[in-house]
Amino acid sequence: SEGIDLAEREVLREVARAIAAAPLPLAGGVGGGPVSTPLLAATPTPNPSRKREGDEVAQAIARAHAAFPAWSATPVETRAAILERYADLLEANRTELMAYAVREAFKTIPDALGEIREAADFCRYYAVQARGILAPRILPGPTGERNELRMMGRGVWATIAPWNFPLAIFTGQNAAALVAGNTGVAKPAPQTPGIAARAVELAHEAGVPRDALVLVTGGAEAGAALTGDPRIAGVAFTGSTATAKAIARSLLEDDNRPIVPLIAETGGINAMIVDSTALPEQVVADVIASAFRSAGQRCSALRLLIVQEEVAETILTMLRGAMELLVVGDPGDPRTDVGPVIDDAAYDRLMAYRESVKGRWIKTVLVPATGRFVPPTAIRLDDLDDLQQEWFGPLLHVATWRAGELTATIERVNAKRFGLTMGLHSRIARSAEIAETTAKVGNLYINRSMIGAVVGSQPFGGEGLSGTGPKAGGPNYLPRFCVERAVSVDTTSAGGNASLLSLE
Ligand code: UN1
Q1: Which residues does UniProt call coiled coil (predicted)?
Q2: Residue 495 binned pLDDT confidence (cut-offs 50, 70, 90)
Q3: Range with the poorest average pLDDT among 48-57, 64-73, 341-350
Q4: Average pLDDT over residues 245-255
Q5: What ligand 1 atom has the least distance to the C-alpha of 297?
């Protein structure tokens, strides 16, 4: 879902017009504005009162709970067809949705386009999956019995999405919950309520009953009210490891509540290992995309580049040159490679860290004087163990490794206990095999960039501190949203072929 081809130039023009016309302040200080423009006067702001927020959440859950029986009884085929209509509507409204992604999440135009494609891909992929794996299945059994396995919705799912994929991940979570026969209460990140509200409207327009998908806005308070409610039958969450753990605890707090599933997709300290057989031009292009695209604000992003000593100087020289060409600025300008980071808190955190390692900068890039632009920076790491935290921005750490130590190097990355993405650049088949068996990650990328997992081809999600699985956009995701019901009917007891008689 990456990149823009020439045929899309017209879309770009349309998007530029829509961004210019959007009734939202362009925050981030882009275009010379103040650094802290209030976000989104035009969309619902998080409710300041804890009590009212809890009430709003409780009402939303009550609605989704009441809508569950009818929606779960709707045939899989109908639910799948609604998702496909939803995908069509997302595409038909892409200009407006892209404008939201640029204005609200400061996505560049290629990234904003990627959001629409990925959201539509999730809907279509889960629709096809649902028809295949959620339809009732006849199981082999003893003579005189009919046995069936039914995949049923669990109830009301809480879906909690991040601001960095405010349409794609938001839509993917909801589409999966809905097609599996659940209703949902969807909480977008507090930074991106506008695009989420529009996405939910389009889902309703596509045929999802109004109460089968209910939006709630707010931050941690709303999230806690949501996951703490005993009517919630499952949680799909993408965000930080710390929040995922807090959610897991809240799900277990009430002794009377059954244990419900939590699907968590969290952070990573993602490494790319480069050996002396790698193609340097390809390495550098993939490093630039993986570390700096989306201002490094992807959980899949490259954080730690580990280059074999012998080629380190060559690769770093080329990397410096390539970084020099990065255009940092207004995300609404099609020429921009790197936009601002999401909010003041992120900006302050990243800039303070960057300043604290100033003595180890390998290369940094000029950025506009005003706005929340964190300069893309490469930082030397003398010891792999010195990096133990995910820095969610355009900061790349660089270390070296010695020939013969591939397994040991991968094990040192594993020891950080995250396990989301890893990259290997090598032309040696044996090295690829070592990485495949040694790297404890959900997504291993060999000789390519580490971002932009495509739904259906690169099911995405990590292990260890990076998440619970199953992988979004993969064949094992939907079953987690279901309960399995085995139905066995004695077909002999009425003395005939069936023990069940139709009353008609
Ligand atoms: C995330 O940043 O939360 O592969 C997920 C990618 C995206 C997934 C990133 N499809 O870059």
Answers
A1: none
A2: low
A3: 48-57
A4: 96
A5: 2
Pocket of ligand 1, beta carbon within 6 A: 162, 164-165, 238, 298-300, 451-453, 460
Residues ≥6 apart with Cβ < 8 Å to 434: 406, 407, 410
Retrieve residue 27's tokens.
């925050």
Q: Which of 164, 169, 173, 299 to mutate to test the pocket of ligand 1 (most atoms within 8 A of CB)?
A: 299
User: Which atom of ligand 1 lies at the shortest distance from residue 454's CA?
Assistant: 10
Verify whether residue 299 is a known catalytic residue: yes
Q: How far apart are the first and last CA of the chain?
A: 52
CA angle 217, 222, 223 (to 5 degrees): 105
460, 471, 477: residue to mutate for ligand 1 pocket, most atoms within 8 A of CB: 460
The catalytic position among 265, 355, 463, 482 is 265
State yes or no: is 123 an active-site residue: no
The CA-atom distances, in angstroms, between 161 and each of 157, 165, 240, 491 are 13, 8, 11, 47
Measured in Å, residue 254 CA sits from the centre of ligand 1 at 33
Within 312-394, strands assigned E span 361-364, 377-380
Q: Tell whether the model's pLDDT for residue 254 goes beyond 70.
A: yes
State the sign of the Cα–Cα–Cα–Cα dihedral 452, 458, 460, 466. Answer: negative
Residues 84 and 95: their CA atoms lie apart, in Å, by 19
Give the C-alpha separation, 301 to 293, whole Å. 8
Which protein residue's CA is at the shortest distance from atom 1 of ligand 1? 299
* DSSP 8-state secondary structure symbol assigned to residue 253: S
* CB atoms near residue 41 (< 10 Å): 10
Bridging pattern class, strands 361-364 and 377-380: antiparallel
**Structural Rg of the chain based on CA atoms:** 24
Atom of ligand 1 nearest to the CA of 421: 4
CA distance 467 to 247: 13
Prior bond of 162 cis (ω within 30°): no
Angle, vertex CA 310, rays to CA 308 and CA 311, nearest 5: 75
pTM of the model: 0.91
The confidence score (pLDDT) of residue 10 equals 64
Question: What is the CA(56)–ligand 1 centre distance, in A?
Answer: 30
Alpha-carbon distance 265 to 250, whole Å? 17
Residue 329 dihedral angles phi and psi, to the nearest 5°:
170, -150
Distance of alpha carbon 299 from alpha carbon 417, whole angstroms: 15
Distances (CA, A) of 17 to 8, 96, 199, 345: 14, 10, 21, 30
Q: Region 370-392: what's the mean pLDDT? A: 97
